Amino acid sequence: MDNRFATAFVIACVLSLISTIYMAASIGTDFWYEYRSPVQENSSDLNKSIWDEFISDEADEKTYNDALFRYNGTMGLWRRCITIPKNMHWYSPPERTESFDVVTKCVSFTLTEQFMEKFVDPGNHNSGIDLLRTYLWRCQFLLPFVSLGLMCFGALIGLCACICRSLYPTIATGILHLLAGLCTLGSVSCYVAGIELLHQKLELPDNVSGEFGWSFCLACVSAPLQFMASALFIWAAHTNRKEYTLMKAYRVA
Question: Where would you say this protein principally sits, based on its record (predicted)?
Answer without folding.
Answer: other
